[in-house]
Design goal:
The structure holds 2 protein chains of 2 kinds. By secondary structure, chain A is of the alpha/beta class. Chain A has 11 helices and 10 strands. Chain A has a single domain, classed as 3-Layer(aba) Sandwich (Rossmann fold), CATH 3.40.50. Chain A is globular. In chain B, the strands form 2 sheets. Chain B has a two-stranded antiparallel sheet with strand order 1-4. In chain B, strands 2-3 form a two-stranded antiparallel ribbon. Classes of the chains: A alpha/beta, B alpha+beta. The complex binds iron/sulfur cluster (3 copies). One iron/sulfur cluster (SF4) binds next to helix 1 of chain B.
């Protein structure tokens, strides 16, 4: 079979979806579905690009059961679904697939509640660092220096440390995923889909539309963010065992290339030196936690 | 297989707005968005599978019989990731 029905397309995010070309979230979806194989999943998608990706009614780009929730309620909706699956003795895995708005900002209260109750769900945050489908406004995941549609100059406040927040809940598993390192990504997807209790994954998902980058640079941007130390690839077990999976080389050239490939940093008043200092500070903290 | 949007009449919509055919968005060919087209040269390709793994739209699939990769231009959005990521430049982008 060669058509869209062939197994090559899987059941999550089938072709015909309306994600922009070169969308990092699409790449994340492809890697995720190939990693989980035939596992039965139910998706909960709060308002975000992944909800829009399904296309307009009467079409849907998902072949798995999907519940679209409000920004604020993804984790609580998923809690209910996983409890029902447990009562019915189904082997379904419930997965939240949320953007950074539904994770860092509006969804944080219900996310924290579900993590505290250690609900049996996998919460995946694909982080494009803005409100992508509403026009590219800033979120608390937008890094310092980046512009957005509702701030004229670059953002001043640094990005929220969501992994730190999730680790502080003492959940069984929290990890960050780099799309430029598919082996590491696959291992984390496999581990988290099969795990028990609340699991959290953070994926850096470049957004050509919002980051004003070339669509072909999507994976390269992740690679540069990982190499320069901007995006640490780590995992945390039970909130206390921190592991650094990929050691960056903290190359200044990579950081500068990362910034120059995106037009959202053009108006920034933050220079790479300050960014370098922030990276050093963050890694100092991480190394202490991981030692 | 689902009909394209312009051939569906309102009488055919299910009660409760239920979508009875999962994944039916495939009738929408996103390949029409493309302005650049990836061209593949199998004589240069080293079969590393990198393009396959990194294509956002799963438009690249292996043909095991012929030992080559094939592109589905109905869905390829022309983003150029495959061409950029290919380590041996077996894929080149050209105006479509
Ligand atoms: S706006 Fe960004 S995150 Fe949303 S579909 Fe487009 S590229 Fe992907
Ligand atoms: S151009 Fe983009 S969508 Fe088309 S095959 Fe290459 S990676 Fe896939
Ligand atoms: S990335 Fe290039 S070399 Fe590797 S399989 Fe694709 S076309 Fe072949």
């Amino acid at each position: 079979m060669k058509g869209p029905e062939s197994p090559q397309y899987g059941r999550l995010l089938r072709p015909g979806n309306t994600n922009c070309g070169g969308c990092g979230m699409s790449v994340a979806f492809q890697m995720f579905r190939r990693s989980i194989g035939e596992t039965n999943v139910q998706l909960v998608i709060p308002a975000c690009c992944a909800a829009v990706a399904a296309g307009g009614f009467p079409f849907s780009a998902y072949e798995a059961p999907v519940l679209l929730s409000t920004f604020a309620s993804a984790a609580s909706t998923a809690s209910g679904m996983s409890q029902v699956a447990r009562l019915n003795c189904e082997d379904t895995r419930v997965v939240c697939w949320a953007g950074d708005g539904g994770t860092y900002d509006i969804g944080l209260a219900s996310l924290s509640g579900a993590a505290e109750r250690n609900e049996d769900i996998l919460f995946v945050c694909y982080d494009n660092e803005i409100y992508g489908n509403t026009g590219g406004q800033r979120s608390s995941a937008t890094p310092a220096g980046a512009g957005a549609s509702n701030i004229t100059k670059g953002k001043i406040e640094p990005k929220k440390d969501i992994i730190g927040i999730m680790a502080a809940h003492g959940i069984p598993y929290a990890a960050t995923v780099s799309l430029a390192n598919p082996d590491d990504a696959r291992r984390k997807f496999e581990r988290s889909i099969n795990g028990k209790g609340f699991r959290f994954l953070l994926i850096l998902a470049p957004c050509p539309t919002g980051w004003k980058s070339d669509p072909s640079m999507t994976i390269e941007l992740v690679r540069l963010a990982v190499r320069s130390g901007l995006f640490p690839v780590i995992e945390v077990e039970n909130g206390n065992r921190w592991t650094i999976n990929i050691d960056p080389d903290f190359s200044r050239a990579d950081l500068e290339r990362y910034l120059s490939l995106q037009r959202r940093f053009r108006k920034s008043e933050i220079n790479p030196d300050d960014m370098g200092k922030a990276i050093d500070l963050q890694w100092g903290k991480l190394r202490t936690l991981a030692s | 297989m689902t009909k394209p949007m312009d051939q569906i009449s309102w009488q055919e919509i299910e009660a409760g707005a239920v979508i009875t055919e999962p994944g039916n968005a495939s009738c929408y060919h996103t390949g029409t968005w493309r302005s650049q087209r990836p061209n593949y040269d199998s004589s240069v390709c080293i079969r590393c599978w990198r393009c396959f793994v990194m294509c956002p739209d799963a438009a690249i699939s292996p043909d095991f019989q012929k030992n080559i990769f094939v592109w589905n231009y109905d869905y390829c959005k022309g983003c150029g990731i495959c061409a950029y990521e290919c380590p041996v430049k077996a894929i080149t982008m050209e105006e479509d």
